Amino acid sequence: ALHEGHIVSAQELTALLQPAFTQNSRNLILFLQDTLSIDDFTYLSESYGNQNPFQNQVNKLSINLLQEILQSSPSSLVLPAVDCEATRHLVSFLQEARDWKLINTTNLNVSQLEVNTSKPNLLVVQLRPLLSQLTEFVKLYMFLFIDKIIGRLTTDLQERGIHFSVIYTAVRPSRISRRTDMVWELRRQLMTTEEDDSLSYAPLNVTTGNETCILFYASNFSLTANDSVFIDLTNATFVTQDVNISSSECSDTNTTLSLKYINPVNGISSLEIRFLMTNKFYEISARNWSTLDSVEIVQDGERLAKFNVSVMSAPAEYSFHCQLVGTSNLYPAKLIPSNDEANNWDVFISRFQIQGFNVEDNEFSYASDCTGFFTPGIWMGLVTSIVLLWILAYAIHMIMQLTTNSRFDDPKGPALSVPQTE
């Protein structure tokens, strides 16, 4: 069946995935990425010629061979466009669809995985996020790395004689399609517009009395414990709001956002995440600044992981926004472990926005972004301009040092004789 030009809804996705639960294969592998689009398979492979980003490093597969495998598979399905709400809650849907034994992993050494084939197994592999700031050439090699991971895992399972089905998807698309309704307008358009990228759900708010004192939003809020247990808190925090925020505190100088979850995953009975913010007056800037000082993770009420936060400050009247926040060095705003327990956690937050002071009308104020004003491109332009200005100044200086002769030869008079001593 062809599914091009149609966005698959959550109900349609449920019906389409039913064959995966009724087949003889009792093992399901879910490769979950933060962003992915069907255009990534064609755009990158066509742009870089022989360096096909989907050429598997283990099986030596090309994109054409991959298509042949899909066609020869007993059951294959390609969905170019799926509703973001459906993919965001895919893990919870799969858990409810069958009595799976859930295995979350980021350590892809399959030889250390214990797969009990006597019962259904759901293996969730959280792939490395693709940063939106990266160039297409860098994304190419990130796709090569991801393809190598997928190839190594599937090959090792095949060699062990384990039958399985695979789902490769992402939480949201990496390429936003153009609006199609603009085509039907008769007047000329100088520029096309992207689809509205507004918030898909309302931010989480903490109130004191009738006033909102904290606003918090993220498009993806997930953790990984001990490189094996993946915890997706996005749905519980913002959609169903199955989170306890009663321990949050608000004041003019200190604010704490406390998020408590009961049984977020198997093996963890309780989980609390705290965002600690302060509001201080700085004499140099002559104004108050709000700062996110630290993030704390408390597991089962006793194991405390503390992170210091870098580059998270804004004027007290503003909110703070950052596209990527987490423990990776690649993120613009990084969470730095400050104790040994923090090294056991990996945090990933996308489209992070928070405001702990001066909230008005239950809406975010103007956002101060974590991206600095002096980007690498601006620095390159400034350095180039300074070099060119120095060359121009040197040339003007050399021209000003030129002097004319004190005597000139008269063609009608006797020849000018200049003694050697002069």
UniProtKB/TrEMBL annotation:
Keywords: Membrane, Transmembrane, Transmembrane helix
Family according to the record: Belongs to the vacuolar ATPase subunit S1 family.
Organism of derivation: Corythaixoides concolor (Grey go-away-bird)
One GO process term, biological-process aspect: regulation of cellular pH
GO CC annotation: bounding membrane of organelle; cytoplasmic vesicle membrane; endomembrane system; proton-transporting V-type ATPase complex
Name used for this protein in its record: VAS1 ATPase
Bilayer topology annotation: Single-pass membrane protein
Coiled coil stretches, renumbered: none
All copies of domain V-type proton ATPase subunit S1 luminal, residue ranges: 211-357
This protein's encoding gene: Atp6ap1
